[in-house]
Amino acid sequence: MDHAVSVGQRRKEPEVMRRVGLKMALLAVVAFIAPAAAWDGLNVKNCTWCHGTSGQGYMVAPRLAGQRPAYIFKQIRDFREHTRDNPFSRQYMWGAVAALDPGAARDLAAYFATIQPKPANDGDPTLAAAGRTIYMEGIPEANIAACYACHGPNGVGVRDIPRLGGLAYFYLKARLEQWGQGYHSGVGTPMPIVARQLGPAEIEALASYLSFVR
Ligand code: HEC
Ligand code: HEC
Fold it and tell me: How many A from CA of 151 to the centre of ligand 2?
């Protein structure tokens, strides 16, 4: 719909600008249609109507934009196999990926990974410095590992270790709490052991800090 608007606006401009404008609009339409067509009729809107425009996250559905493709692929498998059993995972994701074959899952993971992620910026700014210290250094005396060691600088992630920088405060907090409450994510992930040692204040600080990281 954006394309129609931009073409309309260009009509008021001089002839040269108008032609360039139309060409740009056509290119934009082609670029918009091309990736969706690659999925045998599978529509990215099946995901973005919950995960928000461009996969930037919406309400309880986390941002997928810029997430590590290997991590997205693994989570889809874990939803399908019901090993990721968080309340919202059961409620929303078990059904959403039930009919997704591995090829389509891989294509969707690759698609979302290429979108530039935007930070949620919705944590408590006064807790960000404390969160950053835990992220970078852990809490050695409490045996809490540095998140940095696995999730990397600015929480960008690597391979199937997820990007954390800029995810929503509410989502990060819920994930960290739920491991401590005995919910699972994938098989063999270190996170239940890491998260079980975190208290409520530490979780709030970490989730606040990470929501601002870009
Ligand atoms: C009905 C709403 C809904 C639909 C449709 C939906 N999702 Fe989700 N998705 C969610 C919610 C809610 C969560 C958070 C689950 C949790 O809190 O454990 C989630 C979580 C995820 C995660 C985990 C992200 C992370 O950071 O761990 C991935 C990956 C994912 N969805 C991919 C998809 C894909 C791909 C599609 C389309 C095939 C899709 N989702 C469709 C609601 C939805
Ligand atoms: C030993 C490596 C390691 C350390 C240390 C570690 N993580 Fe993780 N983290 C992982 C892996 C691997 C996953 C993916 C889990 C899965 O596959 O389900 C993950 C997942 C997460 C997620 C889920 C993200 C999402 O999109 O749902 C959060 C949040 C998280 N880690 C936060 C932290 C925090 C905060 C710390 C520091 C207190 C930390 N991690 C320390 C390896 C680590």
Answer: 7
